[in-house]
TrEMBL record:
Keyword Hydrolase carried by entry: no
Organism whose genome encodes this protein: Coniosporium apollinis
Annotated SUPFAM superfamilies: Formate/glycerate dehydrogenase catalytic domain-like, NAD(P)-binding Rossmann-fold domains
Family: Belongs to the D-isomer specific 2-hydroxyacid dehydrogenase family.
Highest taxon listed in the record's lineage: Eukaryota
Enzyme Commission number(s) from the entry: 1.1.1.28
Name of the protein in its database record: Dehydrogenase tr07
Gene Ontology MF: a single term: D-lactate dehydrogenase (NAD+) activity
Gene3D superfamilies in UniProt: NAD(P)-binding Rossmann-like Domain
Gene: TR07
CDD domains attached to this UniProt entry: LDH_like_2
Record carries keyword NAD: yes
D-isomer specific 2-hydroxyacid dehydrogenase NAD-binding domain segment(s): 119-305
Top EC class for this record: oxidoreductase
Length: 347
């Protein structure tokens, strides 16, 4: 059974090939492994024909799975969409349901990996280790401009106490922080670490705000000029969730006005036209991105919070187990729409 893997990087090939081999060797049967066909290009309406003849498409965070692309994939025989990520904001689930497509994600593959990364970004930005590293390499041991604050005792606001938000809260509890959280659905595990408050209180009292809620229509531009006006003067904002949670022009204004003390991003609203490729010889046309890069108190990385050996192994294994469930018609707990495709014998 063929799976067309889009946005495939060398590490995707390595971990998916290993998982494919392991899945079938563990069965000890004559069953053949899935046929994985790798495409470097991202998935879009233009590249969808590359999947012709593949029962399934394996996609990543910036692949476009809008209604038109899904229809094109379906017309060429694709019946399953395997997301090798947790977020599914790039998939038109309504269109997938109408086309009776099977769509599955990997909901939890090491929330600690992303949580650790969020804290790494916070510590880097706060203590300027990225700047110190470059200075020392140049023989410059001057400390001016490198001063941070002690994280111990500070108030951190966690927006979204799901798997990653909770893991981040646990780490920061160990740092000795006071923890506040906002989430429409509270969980008892966070109540042992800190206090739930409304979003306005969280923004006005937190020295650090870390975003961990999913991108949905209701959370798009959650951080905008109105919410930024409520944020504590000089607070640091960390976003390892999805770029669309932040209104970029508004955040640039808040940085220029020094209302925001710092911004640490692993995700960016317009990342699909930038991330995961070497663009160092290109002219970048995104002026908001370019402006962000001029601030001394902004750091950005290219969506790598998930990027650990453990997470990649888990992502690959679960992705192929999702495919196996689809192919054999067995219930899949990661099924996002209940689509049955045509391969499944399920009623
Ligand atoms: P999760 O589903 O376990 O938790 C999300 C939480 O957000 C839930 O508790 C939910 O109730 C809450 N929420 C929903 N709407 C909210 C709102 N308006 N305000 C506050 N909270 C709200 O998800 P997770 O596994 O913790 O992942 C969180 C996000 O992290 C994902 O949606 C994904 O976008 C992102 N992510 C990023 C990376 C990376 O590499 N940077 C990797 C994995 C996931």
């Amino acid at each position: 059974m063929k799976i067309a893997v889009f946005s495939a990087q060398p590490y995707d090939r390595q971990f998916l090939d290993e998982a494919n081999e392991q899945l079938f060797s563990s069965k000890g049967s004559n069953e053949t492994s899935f046929e994985l066909i790798y495409h470097n290009s991202p998935l879009s309406l233009e590249t969808a024909p590359l999947a012709a003849g593949a029962s399934a498409v394996c996609a990543f965070v910036n692949d476009q799975l809008d209604a038109a692309t899904l229809s094109s994939l379906h017309a060429n025989g694709t019946r399953a969409i395997l997301l090798r990520c947790a977020g599914f904001n790039n998939v038109d689930l309504g269109a997938a349901e109408r086309l009776n497509l099977f769509v599955a994600n990997v909901p939890a593959y090491s929330p600690e990996a992303v949580a650790e990364y969020a804290v790494a970004l916070l510590l880097t930005l706060n203590r300027r280790t990225h700047r110190a590293f470059n200075r020392v390499r140049e023989g410059n041991f001057n400390l001016n401009g490198l001063m941070g604050f002690t994280v111990h005792g500070k108030t951190v606001g966690i927006v979204g106490t799901g798997k990653i938000g909770l893991a981040t809260a646990r780490i920061l509890k160990g740092f000795g922080c006071r923890l506040l959280a906002y989430d429409p659905f509270t969980v008892p595990a966070f109540k042992e670490l800190g206090e739930y408050v409304d979003l306005d209180t969280l923004l006005s009292e937190s020295d650090v705000v870390s975003l961990h809620c999913p991108l949905m229509e209701s959370t798009r531009n959650l951080i905008n000029s109105t919410t930024l006006a409520k944020i504590k003067q000089g607070a640091i904002l960390v976003n390892t969730s999805r770029g669309g949670l932040i209104d970029t022009p508004a955040v640039i204004t808040a940085l220029k006005e020094r209302r925001l003390g710092g911004l640490a991003l692993d995700v960016y609203d317009q990342e699909s036209s930038l991330f995961y490729l070497d663009r160092s010889s290109e002219i970048i046309h995104d002026d908001y991105f370019s402006r962000l890069m001029t601030f001394p108190n902004v750091i950005m990385t290219g969506h790598q919070g998930f990027f650990t050996v453990e997470a990649l192994r888990e992502i690959s294994e679960v992705t192929l187990r999702n495919m196996e469930a689809f192919a054999t018609g067995t219930p899949c707990k990661n099924d996002l729409v209940g689509g049955k495709g045509v391969l499944s014998p399920r009623p």
